[in-house]
């Protein structure tokens, strides 16, 4: 087959290449580039085409292999290889160090606020805070249960007001 005959036959099959390229790439510009690359490879390797075989299938095979090669290159280019030492434990919970400074400030502010609270509200609140039930506090302080609940509520409101910066 002469170069002119080969060029004519490839040109007649090139209209079938674009839809296939578009299905592979999902982008019109990339599809046009793929068709162009396929035709360039077909023309530059025309001596490898065995006359009498299916030229259309040969062109589709060139296109598919070109697309796969380009895709693999793109994936390799976008692959990030971590060459650092094994620092995977940096964000793990095991490597965290407890910093007690903040909790110390909170504790000091809480103690100050409690000291400034009237004792009739502070005592029921502290007992409740330590785990006593309402009826136990009521019996211990010899107060009605409603009064205990009210005093704990008032103590919470005052503490919330005094410790607003931690809200």
UniProtKB/TrEMBL annotation:
> What GO terms describe the biological role, i.e. biological process, of this protein?
DNA-templated transcription initiation
CDD domains in the cross-refs: Sigma70_r4 (cd06171)
Return any one Pfam family short name: Sigma70_r2
**Alphabetical UniProt keywords:** Sigma factor, Transcription, Transcription regulation
- Give a yes or no for keyword Transcription in this entry: yes
Transcription in keyword set: yes
InterPro entries tied to this protein? RNA_pol_sigma-70-like (IPR039425), RNA_pol_sigma-70_dom (IPR014284), RNA_pol_sigma70_r2 (IPR007627), RNA_pol_sigma70_r4_t2 (IPR013249), RNA_pol_sigma_r2 (IPR013325), RNA_pol_sigma_r3/r4-like (IPR013324), WH-like_DNA-bd_sf (IPR036388)
> In the record, what terms sit under GO molecular function?
DNA binding; sigma factor activity
Q: Which domain of life is it from?
A: Bacteria
| Membership in a protein family | Belongs to the sigma-70 factor family. ECF subfamily.
Q: What is this protein called?
A: ECF RNA polymerase sigma factor EcfG
Which species? Aquirufa nivalisilvae
